[in-house]
Amino acid sequence: MAMLLLTSGAAVALTTLSYCAYEYFTFRRATAAQIATLGEVIGSNSTAALAFSNVEDAEQILAGLRAERSIVAAALYTPAGKVFARYPASLPPEQLPPTALPDGPRYTRGRFESTQPVVREGKRLGTLYLHSDASALYERMRLFLVMGLGVIAASFALAYLVARFLQEQISQPVLALESTARAISERHDYSVRAIKQSGDELG
């Protein structure tokens, strides 16, 4: 019974962990792709604001990110790497990189970051920085772990029922034979007979 429980539990636990790992990396790739697409849209809409140094227009464009709840911070940088506009407008400057980071996505310290160039007619006008919260990823992982624990508990219950059934079919006849042999060897009661319980190898 212990062997069946351990085997089924280990199999389900390994499957659950493998699925969680798959979902983790898949979610990271999907989030990076989503942020990249969002960055392209915001960047293309920000070219005029950067070209004419219009901070108000740039802040209004970045304010459109409020519809994307996962974006907690964003900024436009000048070609020199200085902050030009930020989202939210009340965001403290120390919560943004002081200068533009290298282009590309990155995942550091539990958050997604993406830096993309803002280009118009082949000329780089600035840099867009997006910061996405990873709380959705952690919530998803917690949900999968809870579901995995539920599946493990259900598999343990099923394995226990199967083990009890197998014990009645296989273990009990063997234990009965062992009891008969013990009675003969210890009490020298040669009148004891083993009861044939089936017509197969156990019987």
Strand order of the largest sheet: 2-1-5-4-3
Q: List unreliable stretches of 5+ residues.
A: none
Tell me the total number of β-strands.
5
Radius of gyration over all CA atoms, rounded: 33 Å
**Helical proportion, percent range:** 40-55%
Strand content: 15-25%
Total count of helical runs of at least 4 residues? 4
Helix/strand-derived category reads: alpha+beta
Overall 3D form: rod-shaped
Average pLDDT figure: 85
Q: Alpha-carbon distance between the termini?
A: 22 Å
Q: How is this structure best described in words?
A:
The chain is α+β, with helices and mostly antiparallel strands. It is built from four helices and five strands, in the order αααβββββα. The chain has helices at 2-45, 47-51, 55-63, 135-187, and strands spanning 71-77, 83-87, 104-108, 111-120, 123-133. It has a five-stranded antiparallel sheet. β3 (104-108) and β4 (111-120) form a beta hairpin. α1 (2-45) packs antiparallel against α4. The longest helix has 53 residues, at 135-187. The protein is rod-shaped, with a radius of gyration of 33 Å. The two termini are 22 Å apart. 17% of the residues are buried. The model has no long low-confidence stretch (mean pLDDT 85).
What labels would you give this structure?
single chain, 203 residues, alpha+beta, five-stranded antiparallel β-sheet, 4 helices, 55% helix
What is the fold's blueprint, element by element?
Layout: H1 2-45, H2 47-51, H3 55-63, E1 71-77, E2 83-87, E3 104-108, E4 111-120, E5 123-133, H4 135-187
Antiparallel strand pairs: 1-2, 1-5, 3-4, 4-5
